Amino acid sequence: MSNISTHAVVRCLGGFSLELRGHPVNRWRAGKARELFLYLLINRGRTVDREELHAALWPDRNRSAGSSSVKVAKHAVHQILSGQQAAEEQPAAEIVFNEYGYTLKVHDAWLDFEEFERLCNEGHRAAARSDRITAAAYYRRALELHVGDFLPGESADWAREQQDWVRSLALGAADFLLQEALDRGELPEVIDVCRRTLDIDPYQEDVYRTLIQVHGDLGQLGQARSWYKLCSARMSNGLDIDVSPDTQRLFERVLRVHDAPAQAAVLPPGRSSGQRVTTP
């Protein structure tokens, strides 16, 4: 967002980036400086004791080696955060150390995942008071911001926990918007929201069923068949399971509905579609 007027802009959705006064930070001065910054960022405002930091960032090292490493990483982060400011200015964020541990204090920074969570919470509150129009507006803005997973590719436990949380919020927003579109009968919008949902989580089988049904209703049998095949492949390859009986029955029903007119067109004269055709 080029119009964000804060000292620091931190993006973690779809990939990590840090800008200080409009200048991207591309180099980190120590191996774990980036991870230390991100871990404290997730836990901003809370004092993280040294044992927790060592376990999260250096799980395979002994405590004494980790203690030295965290000091090096802390110094590197301090240099990065203070590198684009005048000496008398307060940094956008700073790591404060005391006898209990480390705290990242954020003074002037915009965080994409924090804004995303705020928008989702506003949507929840609007929905709770039955203001569905306002809720939908907040959820749309949240999904516009959600351009991908939180720190994609990061496999540490602390990141995966945050990834799961952000993904659950995004799926909740998408589910609300999908129901809204279904209630209004806006089938193209239903398709768009379904596709957006599967970008977030490709294993939402009920969403594939919605796509199969909608494309069937629109007479787009090829699209319905494609979604069924994709659902079957993803369930098999990703989860090692078959599609559910509900999905199978829905797809077969869509096929029958579209096959019926063709069958009726080739019936012999005088025979109705309700009569059984016997093979000689």
CATH fold-level assignment of the largest domain:
Arc Repressor Mutant, subunit A
The domain tally reads 3
- In sequence order, what are the helices and strands, one letter per element? EEEHHHEEEHHHHHHH
Shape: elongated
**Average pLDDT across residues?**
86
Distance between the termini: 72 Å
Q: Please report the first level of CATH classification, the CATH class of the largest domain.
A: Mainly Alpha
User: What spatial order of strands do you see in the largest sheet?
Assistant: 3-2-1-6
What percent of the residues sit in helical stretches (DSSP H or I)? 55-70%
Total beta strand runs: 6
Which architecture of the largest domain per CATH? Orthogonal Bundle
* Beta-strand content estimate: 5-15%
State the oligomer: single chain
Find the CATH superfamily of the largest domain.
Answer: Winged helix-like DNA-binding domain superfamily/Winged helix DNA-binding domain
Low-pLDDT stretches are 263-280
Walk me through this protein's architecture.
It is a single chain. The chain is of the alpha+beta class. It has ten helices and six strands, in the order E-E-E-H-H-H-E-E-E-H-H-H-H-H-H-H. It has helices spanning 33-42, 50-57, 63-82, 112-128, 132-145, 157-184, 187-200, 205-217, 221-239, 245-265, and strands spanning 8-11, 17-20, 23-24, 93-98, 101-106, 109-111. The strands form two sheets. A four-stranded mixed beta sheet has the order 3-2-1-6. The chain has a two-stranded antiparallel ribbon with strand order 4-5. A hairpin with a 2-residue loop joins strand 2 and strand 3 (23-24).
